[in-house]
Predict the 3D structure of the following.
Amino acid sequence: MLMKTFTFFVLFLFAIAVLQAQDYQISFTGSGQSTTIDNIQVENLTQGTTLSLNGDDVLNLVGTVGINTLIANKSNVKIYPNPMAESAIIEFVNSKTELVSLEIFNEIGILIAKQSTLVQQGRQRFKISGLNAGIYNVNVSAADWKYTSKLISLGKSSENTAIEYQSTDKGSSPENALKSTKDIIQMQYNNGEMILFKGFAGNHERVLTLLPTQSQTVNFEFIPCTDDDGNSYAVVTIGTQTWMAENLNYETADSWTYDNDPANGDIYGRLYNWEAALTACPSGWSLPSDDEWKTLEIFLGMSQSQANATGFRGTDEGEKMKSTSGWYNNGNGTNSSGFTALPGGYRDISGSFIGLDDSDLWWSSSESSGTSAWYRGLHYNYDQVGRGYYNKAHGFSVRCLKN
């Protein structure tokens, strides 16, 4: 009895280790204005690491970067019949003489069977038998590649699971078969880390954040957001709202770039007095009201009473909105919302520019009096979001909200 308990404990620890050994494959689709994705920028917000993908690449999030894991499809791995009863055949293509390994794991990651065989270039044929009913992962690998696929067994075998080499078809064309495999791009990833994806399709940009826990498909819904000057903006959906994921840079009367430097406009957007801000947003978008800002804040974690207050309120809602770099004195955020707030400063009523690198303030469409309007602000020294009102003549940033 003691030995059985010990064995179960060891298997439990092994299962936990397998579950924590992340190996997630993220593929991408497009919808809305484009079903074709040109490219994707990936940022691990926790680590600060980035990479770029082509639109049809697959992102492989792994604990240890190294081996190239490939998605099994009918052109490189075939298992039949699947589901199997007593046995199944697995076929795959390799491009050179090498040592290949076949491994079968059960649902909780315990290795059931393994076979290593030196094979020549061609299409390989192996037989799997003796599996009890269940769902299994079948891994086929060599020194520098790996395929993985699912196998369902309906059997009730009392035999030991066996993997047997059958034959090699040297006349097949492995190079041509492997060309249909998508490129798998690896990125080191630890469970619990937040990933930001930015998809590009023509002049459309879509931002998404994700806390991966499994392999999945990420869809970019491309939404038009282009001003009358032809500037297109990245967009992000946070809760039930879709926001611009960058500040507006549309030139109007009573708008300015920080220090009157156009380069600052390209990075931080323009600064608008309140009257100009009311009509500056692209068609189909508008300046958010005070209540619409509250909707965002409450989704990010504020209580209603906190959202109704003035000053810096809540806990870490501002941290969730700030970019992961660019803020003075390392006052950066996690950007887990994808809002990507940069510290563009503001223009005061006297015409002075203040606060570049340490703050950003945005107008709402809601007046507080005849001469002032409500705003929101972030500061390098606070993780909270500021709420208050200022004279409408100040120059603040603009974030537009989809109607």
